[in-house]
Amino acid sequence: MKKNMGSTDKIIRIVIAIAVFVLYFTGTIQGTLGIILMVFAVIFVLTSLIGSCPLYLPFGLSTLRKKLKG
Fold first, then answer.
1. Which residue, 13, 18, 31, 34, is most buried by CB atoms nearer than 10 A?
2. Measured between alpha carbons, how far is residue 7 from residues 1, 2, 52, 54, 69 in Å?
3. Cβ atoms within 10 A of the Cβ of 53, count?
4. 31-40: long-range contacts, CB 8 A cutoff, minimum separation 24
């Protein structure tokens, strides 16, 4: 898969995932909402580790900085 995520995007996703994990395991969020948010948190972590977001592809989005040639 082509990388399309910049470092800021990755950091934001990981911070959100950590917040969801903490809220879930402290019992602040639970039930169906908790499960759904945990699934999204896992997806955020995986896409951050891979460096590619499949939802960006159809829209041609990328948060990577373009390298200057020269």
1. 13
2. 17, 15, 11, 16, 20
3. 21
4. none
Question: What's the length of the chain?
Answer: 70
Question: pLDDT tens digits for 5-46?
Answer: 999 999 999 999 999 999 999 999 999 999 999 999 999 999
Here the tokens at position 40 are 């999204």
Enter the tokens of residue 37.
Answer: 């948010």
Is-contact 14 44, C-beta < 8 A? yes
Residues 36-49: b if buried by 16+ CB within 10 A, e if exposed:
ebbeebeebbebbe
Which tokens go with 10?
A: 């990755």
Torsion of CA 33, 34, 36, 38, to 10 degrees: 160
Report how far residue 4's alpha carbon sits from residue 24's, in angstroms, rounded to the nearest whole number.
29
